[in-house]
Amino acid sequence: MSEMVTLTIDGIEVKAPAGSTVLEAAKSVGINIPTLCFLKDINEIGACRMCVVDVGARSLQAACVYPVSEGLKVITNSPKVREARRVTLELILSNHERKCLTCVRSENCELQRLAKDLNVGDIRFDGENKHYPLDDLSPSIVRDPNKCVLCRRCVSVCKYVQTVSAIETNERGFDTIVSSPFDMALKDTPCVNCGQCINVCPVGALREKDDTDKVWEAIANPELHVVVQTAPAVRVAIGEEFGLPIGTRCTGKMVAALKRLGFDKVFDTDTAADLTIMEEGTELIERIKNGGKLPLITSCSPGWIKFCEHNYPDLLDNLSTCKSPQNMFGAVIKSYYAEKMGIDPSKIFVVSVMPCTAKKFEVQRPELSSTGYPDVDVSITTRELARMIKEAGIDFNSLPDENFDDPMGEASGAGVIFGATGGVMEAALRTVVDVLTGKDNDNIEYKSVRGVEGVKVTEVQVPGGPTLRAAVAHGLGNARKLLEQVRNGEEQYHFIEIMACPGGCVNGGGQPIQPASVRNAIDIRAERAKAIYNEDEALTVRKSHKNPRMMKIYEEFLEKPGSHKAHDLLHTHYTARENYPEECSRL
Amino acid sequence: MIYRSHVLVCGGTGCTASKSMDIIDELNKLIRENKIDNEVKVIHTGCFGLCEKGPIVVIYPEGATYSRVTVEDAREIVEEHLVKGRIVKRLLLGDKDAEDVSKALEDVGFFKHQVRIALRNCGVINPENIEEYIARDGYRALGKVLTEMTPEQVIDTIKKSGLRGRGGAGFPTGLKWEFAAKAKGDQKYVCCNADEGDPGAFMDRSILEGDPHTVLEAMAIAGYAIGANQGFIYVRAEYPIAVSRLETAIKQAREYGLLGKNIFGTDFSFDIELRLGAGAFVCGEETALMTSIEGKRGEPRPRPPFPANKGLWQKPTILNNVETYANIPVIILKGPEWFTGIGTEKSKGTKVFAMGGKINNTGLVEIPMGTTVREMIYDIGGGIPGGKKFKAVQTGGPSGGCIPASLMDTPIDYDNLLAIGSMMGSGGFIVMDEDTCMVDIAKFFLEFTVDESCGKCPPCRIGTKRMYEILDRITKGQGQDGDIEKLELLARNICSSALCGLGQTAPNPILSTLRYFRDEYEAHIYEKRCPAGVCKDLLRYVIDEDKCKGCSLCARKCPVNAISGEVKKTYRIDAEKCIKCGACLEACKFGAVKKMA
């Protein structure tokens, strides 16, 4: 327990741990100091000046970074403080494209909220406004600098959390802009499309590329057989878009809503996750047995894959050749399912609902079209699905629970936990240990790989077999730390799981956006993950290889894991990519 | 070798620009031709300060100071003065009829009122020769602290001297050092702020160019005092001469064992590296400077934590300005009591000012604290050109404010300047005469801050821009009722809530001109009139029919054919076409063209 200090905030005596901030101390006594740029652990730079308070110094201080100290006297609510905040906010608004009615973030906008909370009536300081072109060339992310408030949360998350640095603060003064180096389009940078920048943006300056029109169009096309698949992390987060508490499981309602939207079949990506485990587990066992390249690194996260292609081209051979569950699913639908149903695969339209913006990039990869058609036609995010449900007038919260369709509607608990960091590792271990021991082991919960710690290392002693060394990293900064150790030979592992987003898919770049006020107070990654693990526990089949539906696919079609056919349909390859063009480094 | 004459030629930036290096070459050539190169030595020095009169050449032992010397003058100087011993009176700066030329120079107001501590070696030594610095007691202070004093005694000496930071805010230097000395840390740093950026200020450049070793010595002393073994000088890349002299000085100091390991045979090791700034004004702010040294975008960060506890790379760091450092060795050698004997109660010692604007003696002056604005302008500066009336002086650069003529007798020190709405700043001293529009001046300084805002916090990024837009409207005759109040509202809140000192002081030029020249703002807004006749959009040129002789000169000079008439009759200006360039006013020999405010 750290040392406590006593200070006074607006006349209230407060005890707070030394090293904590005035913002935190104020919150503990029910004083909400407004913030805009502040995002706990990610962006603590005191830049926006919305949280200024009077500590008796010559100028007002930013409460978000001002440390508490013994005897400190803080005033958060005086004419001087209120005026300073209001003027600053009006200045920000004076240079903000105020097209709130048609903004994707309307009603979920932190700036709008501030304007309301601070009782801004008129904006007294109108003047020049900058007009920038949209950067909407990326398949995943749209940047709109006209709405940017330069809080820099996106820059911090991209640079420090993800260590990608695709965007930076450029120019200065009134010309300051968050943009890519050399004014490149985002798509030409090493951006991995993870969308974490979108999740932290307080306004509508960053958003996903909206593909809902393509989905509506496909549904309306009588020629097309439109199937939809939903990733595990979607069901534990979509409720937030409809006002349900964070971590509410909405699987049944989500399925019901998808059916009402008009999809011909509603399937579960988790089935394909089980398929992934069979393929990847087999790959792992083979590599261990045959002296193949180790560590084997998971390949489910498309943000991570692109990051690896840019930053660790030397480790591409370590990547599992397995496609991500999304694409395995699409390939199976356009082959096995098409055959079974007697539908021409050219008439099948596969939509995926993902917690992820990088999936939009992934579906465009030319190598991911094993059947001659793209595995997946359109990938939309959890947020886009919610928008479609709202547009269709579906009262989500009053929907009955419904079940996924056959034959791709049944998954094991192992498939479900893919949605959280450590989940792929745990799912794989459940199967690999059974295969290696030839037994149905009861001990299936690998809690050491769960949780939000950045890098998790575990050793699993296979009874009568080898000791497997495994590591899990989530968030690309953590991945980088782990991989540097692997590269330098400091650490050796058999198996590594990497998910691009901090917390894994539950906190993917396509998930419902929670404002800083929520993110600063609770760990949404942990709350959503809890729901994932609850769903796993509620299932009777919790190991991929015990999923009867999936095993039937092998029996009827794929023969066995790692078969020639499985390789054709379910595996892929990777390409090394440069970070920035050579000439940039010479500038 | 001992020479009978030393010829000191200013090698500062101003004189170098006026070909002082060519003068040196020519002098050397002629000295060789006259075969006196065993007797006469030519030395290039740092700045003498009287840049207005450069290039400056001083010849000792006579102390004859020649001004505005050209390459062509070199022959006369060599043949008359150096060969025949006859002073070239036409080039003398001081009293041209005086018998004793060196005394005459001291009588020149420009030098007479100065006390040179920080600039003590500028214009005296060859800055590229460490031995000349050593001969002027250089590195003796470092030797003294390393062999005779404890770090606590060093800090105590600086505290007792009352030395305050010369970079702007005037924070007590000794206190700063004490904080850093007390801060816990395995690694500490000493930094020098040589990112001089105030428009018109060049004292730091002059010290670096004229006496680089004094900065190195002082930084080593600071390193000893706080327990640091590494120093960084953050210097603008736009100061190439300063950079090259610093590089030379560091190399020489290392060769002489005055930087590096076990200095003076003690356990103390200290080294210095240069870091070049890319020209952002904000990098003169201490946290931005350190962020820039770290290789990041140069932007300020909130304090606390203060650099003394968490500075460069999160380690305890002190950062002082060049001029502050230049005072340190002298204080160590002469003692704090000597230093406190100079200056005012709360501002000890001297301050170097860069005098510019509407003043006769543009240049660099070092005055004891407490000198009045009047003395600066009339005794040292030589008054206003053209006999115009003094209106105001802007001190402290874009963060400072205007001091009006009514406050001319204010003794200059940190606290007095703050009290009258300006500040010391780094020592900019820009003089304005009666023809200066104070709204226009405020706009000028604000434009600078708008350009130089780093963009991190909205009050500075957007607020200064909005203030600029309002001022721009006012000077264009589009001012509205309520504009002054809006400016005051913005200014008040930018001061209170901007992130760093640059933003917090950005409104000062507006606040001080509003305080002393509010009537000028009102004239612009309510009467659409610029009393000083500066704001183009509020001016009108007319031809006085009584005075016009019909010579047609104005019509011929007018670049837009706005003037028409018949020869020998009167001419008139078409206000619609007139672009208010003033060419007609300059051309008219009869005073018939008038500028109407």
Give an overview in words.
The complex is a heterodimer of chains A (587) and B (597). Chain A is an alpha/beta fold and 587 residues long. Chain A has helices at 22-28, 79-94, 110-117, 153-161, 196-200, 212-220, 232-235, 251-261, 269-290, 302-311, 325-341, 358-362, 382-391, 413-416, 423-437, 476-487, 516-519, 524-538, 548-558, 564-570, 582-586, and strands at 4-9, 12-17, 52-53, 61-62, 73-74, 141-143, 168-170, 177-179, 206-208, 225-230, 265-268, 296-297, 348-354, 378-381, 455-461, 467-474, 495-499. In chain A, helix 12 (358-362) links the parallel strand 13 (348-354) and strand 14. The longest helix of chain A has 22 residues, at 269-290. Chain A starts with a strand and ends with a helix. Chain B is an alpha/beta fold. Chain B folds into five domains: 5-107, Glutaredoxin, CATH 3.40.30; 130-339, NADH-ubiquinone oxidoreductase 51kDa subunit (Rossmann fold); 350-433, Ubiquitin-like (UB roll); 438-526, de novo design (two linked rop proteins); 539-596, Alpha-Beta Plaits. Chain B has a five-stranded mixed β-sheet with strand order 10-9-13-11-12. A four-stranded mixed β-sheet of chain B has the order 2-1-3-4. In chain B, strand 6, helix 12 (240-255) and strand 7 form a beta-alpha-beta unit. The longest helix of chain B is centred in the last third of the chain and has 19 residues, at 508-526. Chain B starts with a strand and ends with a strand. At the A-B interface, strand 4 and helix 2 of A face helix 18, helix 19 and helix 20 of B.
